[in-house]
Amino acid sequence: MSKQFLTTRINNAYWRVVFSHPPMNLIDPDTILEFQQLVGEIETDENLRVVVFESSDPDYFFSRYDLARAAETPTEPGPSGLPTWIDMTTRISQTPVVSIALIRGRTRGGGSELALAMDMRFASLEKAVFGQPEVAAGVLPGGGAIERLPLLTGRARALEIILGADDFDARAAEHYGWINRALPDAALDVFVDNLAQRIASFDQPALREAKRLINRRSLPAAADLLETQNVFLTAVSSWPSLRARGQRIRERAAGLGREFELRLGHFLGKI
Fold first, then answer.
1. Are 134 and 141 spatial neighbours (Cβ–Cβ below 8 Å)?
2. pTM greater than 0.90 (yes/no)
3. What is the tens place of the pLDDT at every residue in 146-173?
4. How far apart are CA 87 and CA 15, in angstroms?
5. Please, which residues have CB within 8 angstroms of residue 66's CB and are 6 or more apart in sequence?
6. What CA–CA distance (Å, rounded) separates 133 from 42?
7. Which domains are delineated in the chain?
8. Which residues does 77 contact at the CB level (< 8 Å), separation at least 6?
9. What is the radius of gyration, based on Cα positions, of the chain?
10. Are 208 and 53 in contact (CB under 8 A)?
11. Is the dihedral of CA 228, 231, 234, 238 positive or negative?
12. Please, are residues 104 and 55 in contact by the beta-carbon 8 Å criterion?
């Protein structure tokens, strides 16, 4: 039974999944294993057409990966034969079921990468913040941003996002193609629910084949994802520069408390 994900079945064709991992919705090895299990449930439900993912915390969607537990990252092959993270993100992209991220709050690092693996992303204009802060922390995105962002935003903007490692508001993320739309917070839930209900009412064969055919030219190669993850895991286990920068970051975070995480992109640029 999942501890971090609560699934509500609106009807046979439409699920809502709420992520809750206090105090700030960090992704950790347990999140990965639970999400992988959830993907299996999505794949095997014969009636399901659409799943909406949201957060219980308005300040954090999928926040970021917990680098303090990076050494515990599960890498066992999943049903696809790929390591755990790549397995679950590849399968959520390839399943005929449509996945929609309803985003409020900070969506950075591994959290952004998890959202990028979903089919669509809609965000609160006032409350959503996006970032790939890994380079500023001395490492690199290891969970799909390097592969997926250039397909969405183009090469130059992907370089700006990843190498600049700053925060982006929802309006900029929409303009860059990182997300589908940024909507006023008061309108976000109704818009996403209406879209999900609309998709859930359509015939499965049409949905399945349309998504499969779009996927032919719009998903990254598994070999590229695997190469990047291997570099990431090598970095967190053996790069001396990462250990040195990580110590400075921890000291700065301890002095600033909650404000450090809320304005992560800003403060990482001053380490």
1. yes
2. yes
3. 999 999 999 999 999 999 999 999 999 9
4. 21
5. 26, 27, 28
6. 30
7. 5-201+217-268 (3.90.226.10)
8. 83, 84, 87
9. 18
10. no
11. negative
12. yes
